[in-house]
Design brief:
- Helices cover 30% and strands 25% of the residues.
- By secondary structure, it is of the alpha/beta class.
- Strand 1, helix 2 and strand 2 form a beta-alpha-beta unit.
- The longest helix is centred in the middle third of the chain and has 16 residues.
Length: 585
């Protein structure tokens, strides 16, 4: 007996009676709509002007249209997680206004979601936020689900594992799962009291249990896990693993990789709407019942592009007060920016953008060195008066700052690993020095050419003077000349290194790749600080401005560059033009 499910079901779920359930003979059609990785794109405004963006308001336009066409009672609406992070609105209700009932459960209740799986970025908000949000979701009738988030004290699910709903005359079981690789990105205090099991290792047992206990007509598995390769090798990408092997699941709804994707097979279908309210994933399931049994089953799947201009005006007006509160917070002035910050500049070498991040990190004692990457793929903040909204472009995530110990030798090997994801070994400026390839990238909507590896793993170091030789292979590229102040850099010495909580927890696998066990990172942590965006805010309140001459002070952050310049510089310019157009020159 699956006791993990039994306790959660009895306490947290309203289960529908299954005794004597028998479908009447005939044809049934169930419409399934799914969303995922919305990342709090709740409002259709950019807050700073008349521009509009894709949003839950616009998604609701399509959802209501489908419900009108197919009948409300015939449409199942499910979300696959990462709801509480990404936009100013979530930040405001997560951390600023903690008295007003959180906006997200009210949106879910308004849109009448049937089920919601939890995502890693929902866990990233921490217990005070997601526990509070869960109370609101329970009241709204659709709590966060995560069957694989297991309590450490009693082995039961921390969140509801599944819920039962009736749509199109069918009893539907919806199981929810969070990403199994959370400990690789988030510090343990954010998910204290629980651990996360592999979805692939347990989903068949869960499905069998629910089918035996509830006798559902349809089973849906909503998981915040990427599609992956389907070969069982990637813990954070288990959707295709489940799709290929699990029996008894009719619909598999996934996310995390921001990849719009649908697939249909004889007995099951997969939906992934992508991210940031760009698509609604849409499907239909046709069933024929004879003698009380399903004798025929077929699927249709597609992706509905969301038009930002078609936002639900009634919904917009309903939540206008919330929008105005977020907008007022977002537009508060926080300081001055004395030069444009372009995140794309970071791919070519030192940049004002990454210099700023390094300066913030090095300002926190006892940091001697800093390791940081560009976290916005292609963002720009214009010089002038900064408002709080700009801080989300500069630093979009709620990463905390850690200071950990690393030897000089480990730091060099770490940089070698980072640059190996970033650049190729070349011998002439006509070759691709950046690791790019001619393919569209659905994750960031990049068209034409894309980086092979995620650019948020392109770490550079500050507090050092060093070069990166593009003509040499990994292991011989990074040459450290000295510390930023001119003193000797010693490979055998231990240094205090500022690094994000994401990286310290194993994100990007860079630390693990060089032999640092991130499961034991606490043995190396010498200091922990709040979210880096908050450090940026405090810096602006103290200094009043971001000045490239200050954040780029070589006596503090040092310097690094690609060499030899006659090969590296033109090759980088050429690759950036492929990625971003002629404006990158």
């Amino acid at each position: 007996m699956n006791t993990r499910f039994l306790a959660v079901s009895a306490v947290s779920l309203i289960l529908l009676g299954s005794c004597g359930h028998r479908l009447k003979d005939g044809d049934y059609t169930l419409t399934v709509l799914s969303t995922n990785d919305v990342h709090s794109t709740w409002f259709d405004s950019t807050y700073t002007g008349g521009d509009i963006k894709k949003s839950l308001f616009a998604m609701n336009y399509y959802i209501d249209s489908v419900r009108t066409a197919d009948g409300f009672d015939n449409v199942l609406l499910v979300d696959a997680g990462d709801c509480l992070q990404g936009d100013n609105a979530a930040y405001y209700y997560n951390y600023v206004d903690t008295v007003t009932p959180h906006l997200f459960p009210r949106l879910i209740e308004y849109m009448r979601y049937d089920a919601i799986a939890m995502g890693n970025h929902d866990i990233e908000t921490g217990h005070p936020v997601y526990d509070r949000v869960q109370e609101g979701l329970i009241h709204a009738g659709s709590p966060f689900m995560a069957a694989n988030a297991i309590r450490n004290d009693n082995g039961k699910s921390y969140f509801p594992a599944y819920r039962m709903v009736v749509k199109a005359g069918l009893r539907i079981a919806v199981l929810g799962y969070n990403n199994a690789n959370i400990k690789a990105w988030l510090s343990e205090e954010l998910w204290s009291g629980m651990h996360f099991e592999s979805i692939a290792s347990r989903i068949q047992e869960d499905v069998d249990y629910v089918r035996q206990r509830e006798k559902p007509d349809v089973v849906v598995a909503a998981m915040h896990s990427a599609c992956g390769q389907g070969d069982g090798t990637i813990l954070e990408a288990e959707a295709l693993d489940a799709f290929n092997r699990v029996k008894g699941v009719d619909w598999l709804i996934c996310g995390h990789d921001h990849r719009p994707y649908v697939e249909t097979r004889d007995t099951t279908a997969l939906l992934n709407s992508g991210s940031h309210s760009r698509f609604v994933a849409h499907g239909k399931m046709h069933l024929t019942v004879s003698g009380g049994k399903v004798v025929k089953k077929s699927f249709e799947t597609d992706l509905i592009p969301v038009d930002a201009a078609k936002a639900d005006p009634v919904m917009r007006e309903h939540f206008r007060g919330d929008f105005e509160a977020v907008r007022a917070f977002t537009l508060q002035e926080v300081g001055e920016l004395k030069t444009d910050l372009r995140t794309r500049d970071a791919y070519a070498g030192m940049s004002d953008y990454v210099n700023l991040i390094h300066t913030l990190c090095l300002s926190q004692a006892p940091a001697e060195l800093s390791i940081a990457a560009p976290l916005t793929y292609n963002g720009t903040v214009k010089a002038g008066t900064l408002v709080f909204n700009d801080l989300f472009t500069i630093y979009p995530f709620e990463n905390q700052l850690y200071v950990i110990t690393m030897t000089g030798e480990e730091i060099v090997r770490y940089l070698e690993a980072s640059y190996d994801r970033w650049i190729n070994t070349i011998s002439s400026p006509s070759e691709h020095v950046l690791k790019i390839e001619p393919r569209d990238n659905p994750r960031n909507q990049q068209k034409g050419w894309s980086f092979i590896h995620p650019s948020y793993n392109f770490d550079s170091a500050a507090g050092l003077n060093y070069t990166v030789d593009v003509t040499k292979p990994r292991g011989g590229r990074v040459a450290v000349q000295s510390m930023a102040d001119g003193s000797a850099f010693e490979p055998a010495r231990t240094y205090n290194v500022a690094i994000t909580s994401y990286r310290a927890s194993g994100g990007g696998n860079l630390l693990d790749e060089i032999g640092i066990d991130t499961d034991r990172i606490d043995e190396r942590v010498v200091a922990r600080y709040p979210e880096i965006r908050n450090i940026l805010y405090d810096y602006l309140k103290e200094k009043g401005s971001i000045d490239p001459a200050v954040v780029g002070d070589p006596k503090i952050i040092g310097s690094w560059r690609f060499v030899p310049e006659r090969i590296a510089a033109p090759a980088v310019r050429s690759d950036l033009t492929l990625l971003f157009g002629s404006s990158s020159k």
